Amino acid sequence: MPRTAIGRSERLLEELRRWVEHETPTTDPRAVNRLLDVAEGELCAAGATIERIPGRDGYGDTLIARTPGGRGRPVVVAGHLDTVWDHGTLARSMPFRVEGERAYGPGIFDMKAGSFLAFHAVREILRQKTPTRAPVVLLLTPDEEVGSPTSRAIIEREARGACAVLIPEPAVGPEGACVTARKGVGRFEMRVRGRSAHSGGNWQDGRSAVVALARRILEIHALVDLDRGVTTNVAPIRGGTRPNVIAPEAACEIDLRVATAEDGERLERLILGMAGSPEEGIEIAVSGGMNRPPFAETPAILALWETARALAAAEGYDLPKTFRGGGSDGNFTAALGVPTLDGLGCPGAGAHAPDEHIRWPDLAPRGATLCALLETLGD
Question: What are the Peptidase M20 dimerisation domain coordinates in residue numbering (predicted)?
Answer without folding.
Answer: 180-272
